[in-house]
Specification:
By secondary structure, the chain is α+β, with helices and mostly antiparallel strands. The chain folds into 2 domains: 2-98, Phosphorylase Kinase, domain 1, CATH 3.30.200; 102-287, Orthogonal Bundle (Transferase(Phosphotransferase), domain 1). Helix content is 35%, strand content 19%. It contains 10 helices and 10 strands. The chain has a 5-stranded antiparallel β-sheet with strand order 1-2-3-5-4. The protein has a 3-stranded antiparallel β-sheet with strand order 6-8-9. Strands 7-10 form a two-stranded antiparallel ribbon. The N and C termini lie far apart (57 Å). 33% of the residues are buried.
Length: 290
C-alpha cells in the first residue's frame, strides 16, 4: 500500500522504507502512468527509478512493461541501459536502471548543431549494430526517434525505451483489427502504423534509423516538415520516398543513398536485415572523407 500511496504523491516519506538502498531521490518527470526519479544507489551509483502505476484494467500496459524489462535482459548490447532491479507490487511496477548522463539527440538537434559526416556515420553504425542484437532475439524496437537516443557526455550513443517493442516470438498485444498500431508519427514506417503485423521486422527499425539520420544531416524531419497534421505525415510517408541529401565528405553520394535506401517508404527496397544494412554501410566507409 505504501508504494501505491507514494506513486500518487500521497506519501513521499516512505521512500526510505521501500527503497532502503536509494538516497538523494529527485523527481525528473511525471506524466500518465509513470513517474521517473534520479537517485543514488548504495551499490550501483547513479540510477534512474521508474515507478509505473497502470489503471486496474490496463492489462496491455502491464504486459508492455514486462516486455520492456525482458528486452533489456535479453538484448546483449552495451548501448542499452542496464536494468539492475525490477519488481511488481500489486498493480505497481518499479524499475531501477542505469542512469545515462547526457542529452537526447532531440535536444542536440534543437540546439542547431550541424552534425559532421563522422558523427552521422557513427550514429548509423552504432544504432544498426544494436538492431542486429535485437534482430537475433526477435525484437523490433518500433520507436527509434531522437527522443529515444541519448548522447552521453563521453560521446557514447544509447538507445532507450523499448516500451512498444514488438517481440516476434510472443503474441502481439495490438488488436489485429485495429487500423493503427502504436507508433510515433513521422518515424514509423507504413507497415508499422498500418498494423501490418506480418511485415514487421528489423526493416521497420531501419526505416526509422534512416529518417533520423536524414534529420541529423538536414536539421529537419522530411516527413513532418510542412505537414499540417498527423494524417498528412502518414500520407507523405506512403507516397514519397526519403530523398538523398548532400553530406559534406560524401562526394559519391554513397552515404546519402544508403540513408535513402534504409529509410525508403517501401519495405521491399530496404536491406533484408540489419546485418545486411551494416555490411553495406561498412563497405562504403573508404569512399568517405572524415
Amino acid at each position: 500500500m505504501y508504494l501505491q500511496e507514494m506513486v500518487s504523491g500521497m506519501d513521499r516519506s516512505k521512500f526510505s522504507e521501500i527503497f532502503p538502498s536509494l538516497s538523494d531521490i529527485e523527481e525528473l518527470s511525471s506524466g500518465g502512468y509513470k513517474t521517473v526519479y534520479k537517485a543514488i544507489h548504495s551499490s550501483y551509483g547513479d540510477v534512474v527509478l521508474k515507478i509505473v502505476k497502470p489503471s486496474q484494467d490496463n492489462l496491455e500496459l502491464c504486459e508492455r512493461i514486462k516486455r520492456e524489462i525482458r528486452s533489456s535482459e535479453i538484448i546483449k548490447s552495451d548501448h542499452i541501459p542496464h536494468i539492475f532491479e525490477s519488481c511488481v507490487t500489486g498493480n505497481v511496477f518499479w524499475i531501477i536502471e542505469e542512469l545515462i548522463d547526457g542529452m537526447t539527440l532531440r535536444e542536440v538537434i534543437k540546439s542547431g548543431k550541424c552534425f559532421p559526416l563522422a558523427e552521422i556515420f557513427s550514429f548509423l553504425e552504432t544504432i544498426i549494430s544494436i538492431i542486429i542484437k535485437a534482430e537475433q532475439v526477435k525484437i523490433v524496437h518500433r520507436d527509434i526517434k531522437p527522443e529515444n537516443i541519448i548522447i552521453g557526455t563521453d560521446g557514447k550513443l544509447w538507445l532507450i525505451d523499448f516500451g512498444i517493442a514488438r517481440h516476434l516470438d510472443l503474441d502481439s498485444l495490438t488488436n489485429s483489427n485495429a487500423p493503427f498500431a502504436p507508433c510515433t508519427v513521422g518515424y514509423a514506417s507504413a507497415e508499422q502504423f498500418r498494423n501490418r503485423k506480418k511485415d514487421i521486422d528489423s526493416r521497420t527499425d531501419l526505416f526509422a534509423i534512416g529518417v533520423v539520420a536524414y534529420e541529423m544531416a538536414s536539421g529537419e524531419n522530411f516527413y513532418i516538415k510542412d505537414a499540417r497534421d498527423a494524417f498528412q505525415v502518414i500520407r507523405k510517408i506512403e507516397r514519397d520516398p526519403l530523398p538523398a541529401i548532400k553530406i559534406t565528405g560524401d562526394p559519391q553520394y554513397l552515404l546519402a543513398n544508403f540513408i535513402k535506401t534504409i529509410g525508403d517508404n517501401r519495405i521491399s527496397r530496404r536491406p533484408s536485415s540489419a546485418q545486411e544494412a551494416l555490411d553495406i554501410l561498412r563497405s562504403i566507409r573508404t569512399t568517405l572523407s572524415f
